[in-house]
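Regression test attached.
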Amino acid sequence: MASSLKDQVAVVGVGHTQYGRRLERSPFDVIAEAIQNALDDAGLRWEDLDGIASNSGSPGSADMDSVPTLLGLKVKGYWQTWSHGRYCGTALTWAALNINAGIVNYVALVHGSGGGRRDRRPQGDGGGGEAAREGGGGHAEAPEYGMTSPGAGTALATRRYFDRFGATSRQLANVAMTIRRHANLNPSALFRDRILSVEDHQTSRFICEPLHLFDYCLVTEGGTCVILTSAERAKNLKKPPVYLMGTQPIPAGRHEFIFGIPGMGIGQMENYEYRPTVDDHPVYRMAGVKHEDIDGLFTYDAFTPLIWFTLERFGFVGPGEAPAFVDDGNIALGGRLPMNTNGGLLSEVHKSGWNHQIEIVRQLRGEAGPRQIKDVEVIQWANAYGDSLIYRR
Amino acid sequence: MPYEKPLPPVSPLNKPYWDAAKEKRELHLQKCRQCGHTWWPIAPICPNCHVRDYKWEKMSGKGKVNSWVVFHQRYFPGFEKEIPYNVCEIELEEGPRVMTNLVNAKNEEIHMGMPVEVVFEDITEEITLPKFQPIRK
């Protein structure tokens, strides 16, 4: 019989290192520090950890084949996905399922990037890694035509979105500015002291047109750790548990393009205006919540348009309505649906979505200081490419 | 002068595509003998009805611009001299969408729905690369 994951697993510890553009530290080193900080946060010891997973091991980060050996862990299970940030929720769900099945008790979800592996960048590269994937991989890569990098895939989808709905790059500046203002309230954010204006955004250079520099996330280094355990074990630890209410994985097929949403007419997708059905998003059913119950929304904001696409994909707004929704201040702190209150990948740090999970936990514990969402009960992690997690306090 | 851009990966699966480009200067895609579907990317079975019964068929070589981007950032050293260069997604008359560069055109004149046709560029002794150009009236 099927059994639901709802409220069976909780986040009990979060930790990270100092973030930076370039840290002269190995990925293993920052992961070790992040784990220690998360253990301290939870009131756990190294010996308690019996599982470890990452969405960003080798190439590009710490090889998960080596992490347990180097850090002296004795785990019953470890796992890494191909190095892509989008598998953050997938990695977390792997841990939740194994905990719920009684196979492991405490899983550390880790991410670390640092000096020493910069020659192994898997994305937007000079011909290895991502670009060599037969069939184009997730990014619609075609190196023989110079087509590479996640930003270019997003740019391709954005051009069609502009054309269909009349949205503009100036409106993308509002996305970047909203998220930057959140970063300005976050002491961990690399751009905490930098103000962004429409003019800054509009006059910044193009990376892959129509996207400007400030439509792109930061490329950064540092380590993060999120510790999961069963709801039962979570009760007796140092901090209040943050429960996982629902999950849904990443859909795939010819109807999908990871930097867009169904119906956009990119790649081999059909061309129509997508409106989600109840069956498209089982996460709400598992969690037993509706849109109006969501107090905060977090998303993988590697590029500004992904915030629009997420709002439409999950039905918070209708097709073409996201730009005006953002322009009207709805995703800012104090708005109807605050998004990425940490400053996101755009302006806090790029920790492959883990910096967002850490902020979600802080919000639900009431630890977010000047960024605190008032009376927050339920927060959703949801992405343009379709996966989602829902948490509650 | 050596060719400096990345070369496409030729595999047993996609070899007929590259052979048709080089030997016939034609764009050939797979067409299902059962359901008539034509598809991209090149696949081992028909993605519509999942049978292995397909033939390689000549496409008209005509289509329209479905979306496009212009690279200002250097990723591949071999493309550096052409920055800013375009990458276009073309919707072929037969339906599939393919990635390419639009040649014999200025980046500024590229637009949605722009009618285009295939041209062939011999980039090495082994590889002939399909590109597209505007159809000028």
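Expected vs. actual: identical. The two ends of chain A are 28 Å apart (CA to CA).
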